[in-house]
Amino acid sequence: MNARLESVAPPAAQQGQALVLGMLLAATVSVALVMQYNLGRTVESRSRLTHAADAAAYSGALEQARQLNFLAYVNRTQIAHQVAMAHLVTLGAAAQYMRTLAGQRNRNNPPAALIGMLFGPDTALAYLAARGKPGAEADLARAYAEHDRVVHRVLDKGAASAVAGLPASRDRLMRAVLQDNYSQAGGGVGLAAFSRTDAAPSLRLLSDGWPGFIQRQAATRRAGLRPAVEQAAARFGFLARRNETRRNPWPVSMYCPILRHELRRRGSTWLGPDGRWGALDTQSFHALRSNRWVGCYYREYAMGWGTAQGQKSKAPPDLEYVEAPPEDFSSQDFWRWVELSTNWNIFDGATNPMANSYAMAQVQRWPGLGLPGYREVALRRGAEPLRFAVAVSLAGNVLPTTDAASQVAAPAGRFRYAGLGDGGTLTVTSAAETYFARPDARPDGRPELATLFRPYWQARLSAVTPAETLLARGGR
Q1: Where are the alpha helices (DSSP H) in 182-208?
Q2: Cα-flanking dihedrals φ and ψ of residue 191, to 5°?
Q3: DSSP state, 409?
Q4: End-to-end CA distance of the chain
Q5: 3-class DSSP state for residue 290?
Q6: Closest by Cα among 437, 469, 399 to 38
Q7: 296 neighbors 290 (Cβ within 8 angstroms)
Q8: Three-state SS at 71
Q9: Residue 126 burial (C-beta neighbours within 10 Å; 0-12, 13-18, 19+)
Q10: Residue 219 contacts residue 373 (beta carbons within 8 Å)
Q11: 50: which strand partners?
């Protein structure tokens, strides 16, 4: 009995052992709570930063879409201005034509009664109604010059500015979106820390498809702006060929019984190889004559003529004319002058070469720079979206963790919070792209290549590639 009592330790020797275990357990729980606190704050901050980065990237892609659609509207506006300039040139030629037609009528060369007798009363009425409006040609030339100014100094420079300034405007917009996401205090735990100026996230571009995506093309190429302008102009009957021929109904000469006097109205509007518009309108009375030297031929009496062309433009290659036509043929027969000075066909021709000559001698030369250069998606880039990726980082010292913005004392050494990595920053990645898509399918069912002639550019987020993720982590 005494032996058993001696083996049991006195109660005073066992006091304090449970306290040590309790303190170890409390320390373990405290560490776990701190880790849970830091992890929760980090996850919350990463989620918030990810949403902000996605919003910034999408806004950047949307800015790209806006600029590309702007370039598309610029190209379409250029087409509209060119159609307007074609109308002005045609009106300028018509104004001069009406003025010269009225002058010939006043001189009875040829008489209106003769024209009406041979070709009908409506032709005589039109001849008699011809009037020249003073100053009309000068007014049209000024309007043409204003269109040319807008085309080159406003639209072309605006497009150039949009292309050159897109990277900067896209960057400003993305940074503004990030700033807006971290500039409002309150409304959530830890947001007060993000209201500080130095707490704004930093933005870094990982990849960018913008360089080389847009190219400036010459407008005189067979594809692009020139054919689009010609196609648009072809829709207006006013710019179409203005050709009509009338013949008197009865025989004129026993030597050529199937031939008749002719009244030829000719007119056309064209876009020259130099990208400048030209228009020519003429009307001539071709009187059937005959003699023993050349037989039956047409003696042309120019009734009206007018042309407006670019300052340095050349006449169309198929236009028959001479540079210094005689004012009259009182000293030499018409047929003999033609035989000696020209290669015109006066036997069965279909043009007004004499009226053409008078028109070219009095040509209106309107200055202008011609078709402007235009912007288009580079051919090799048309099949791919316009894409970029960004890395958005937030300094660790502004996060609500025990190592940063928390009021809890920050542990040091091996016990510091390592959830932010060696750099001590929170970094997320995001990517977005601008793509071309029609709002509805083409009527012919064919796909449509990306182009800057249709404002069908849209924006969306894109997946981040592994290479971009590695780049965001500093290449490690």
Answers
A1: 191-194
A2: -70, -25
A3: P
A4: 74
A5: strand
A6: 399
A7: yes
A8: helix
A9: middle
A10: yes
A11: none
What integer pLDDT is reported at residue 32 of this predicted model? 64
Can you state the angle between helices 17-106 and 121-129, rounded to 10 degrees?
Answer: 110
Res 12: pLDDT: 57
Q: Look up residue 33 and give its two tokens.
A: 């709570």
Nearest Cα residue to 300 out of 341, 252, 357, 255: 357
pLDDT recorded at residue 404: 56
* The one-letter amino acid at 198: D
- Of 230, 18, 5, 250, nearest to 118 by C-alpha is 250
Alpha-carbon distances of 39 from 7, 26, 28, 418, rounded to whole Å = 51, 19, 16, 10
Beta strands in 396-466 (DSSP E): 425-436, 457-462
Would you state the pLDDT for residue 15? 62
Residue 286, Cβ neighbours under 10 Å: how many? Answer: 24
- What is the reported pTM? 0.83
272 within 8 A of 348, measured Cβ to Cβ: no
Averaged pLDDT in 10-residue chunks for the chain of 476 residues: 51 64 69 61 78 96 97 97 98 97 96 97 96 94 96 94 96 94 54 51 94 90 86 96 96 92 98 95 97 94 97 91 92 93 93 97 95 93 93 78 53 51 76 94 87 96 94 74
Residue 42: the pLDDT is 64
Output the six-digit token pair for 473: 């982590």
d(CA 297, CA 275): 38
- pLDDT of 356 reads 98
DSSP code for 399: S
Q: Using CA atoms, how far apart are residues 282 and 354, in angstroms rounded to an integer? A: 9
Residue 86's contacts (CB-CB under 8 Å, 6 or more residues apart) are 233, 236, 239, 269, 271, 277, 279
Could you state, in order of their start, the residue ranges of all structural domains in the chain? 79-155+219-366
